[in-house]
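Changelog-linked ticket: pyridoxal-5'-phosphate example.
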Amino acid sequence: MGKFTVDSNGFYGEFGGAYIPEILYDNVETLKNTYLEVLNEPSFKEEYEGLLKDYVGRPSPLYLANRLSLKYGCKIYLKREDLNHTGSHKINNAIGQILIARRMGKTRIIAETGAGQHGVATATVCALMNMECVVYMGAVDVERQKLNVQKMEMLGATVVPVTSGNMTLKDATNEAIRDWCSNPSNTYYVIGSTVGPHPYPDMVARLQSIISEEIRKQLLEKEGRETPDYVMACVGGGSNAAGTIYHFIDEINTEIVLAEAAGKGINSGESAATIHLGKLGIIHGSKTLIMQSEDGQIEEPYSISAGLDYPGIGPMHAHLAKIGRSQVLAVTDDEAMQAAFELTKLEGIIPAIESAHALGALNKMKFKADDIVVLCLSGRGDKDMETYINYNA
Ligand SMILES: *Cc1c(COP(=O)(O)O)cnc(C)c1O
């Protein structure tokens, strides 16, 4: 590891860092000085790995998608994060951070959520561990994602609708940060992606790195080699992508291909293609690429997939794209939806619309017949049924 990973100040190249209000300085500093130690404690590892196995259902299968492979003329394996408890990779991170919070003596958990997947994962783990849980969610998203709100409430969490700004994820995140500033001593803020101030991006990447750790073992068993020719994933904030690529970053023969949401087209004014369109700025404690207007106002992103429409991008991914270690493709709503229907017909798997963006990137690639491709299927499509039905209507 080296030029691809975070430095001691939390920077990936020019991106990252910790730009936080004074009141949170002690909290973030303590977390920064604690997280690596905790992650390496044998008792933490035992509890974390035990829960991943028996509660989440890991290892998630690495499935050779035969009919999909035939279509694209290579060998495509799907990493089945969709089969995890609560339906996506987000639970890997939620369990890890809440175990860290408990070891830091925190009694109250807060989180932000957009589509509700991170909120549901956090509320689930809080129920399991008997912790107080408050989830901030934009009022527009509360309306759009009723079922997830009802799940969080059934799990015992308090869902706070946020009515400032555009009433979506960015505003929910601001409100969660405000709560954290008012309750710095007893509260731990569980961030759902590789975003936010250092050490969050690195901590979340490490907690999700179980994905690529498993891929290496599973590929060795199935193919007699640990490294594929390509790893592919979708990027919102970047956590499933970070987990999928983590143990391949230094394997330069493994190409990293990421898909961001182009919405109605990169140049349509309605997209969430942050790496293509973003400019350097600071959002939620991190210096990174941001969708912003000429005068630096954050622009509301758009994607058909609620999990990908964040106006920023994790600093790790901004860096990897900038130095050319990853290739980032922009996939439109329509391309993702077609890819979702295709996977459903060919393999009998209904993917989350976020994951369908990674599938939509397959079409833009030129593979050789003996190429081995591992694609992260970050979540299942149950939550998206209404969108799929209305799209076809
Ligand atoms: C939240 C979510 C994403 C996007 O978040 P990342 O941090 O970029 O992984 C992707 N897929 C699914 C299924 C999600 O729930």
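Closing comment: Example verified and attached. Residues 141 and 240 are 22 Å apart (CA to CA). The two ends are 49 Å apart (CA to CA).
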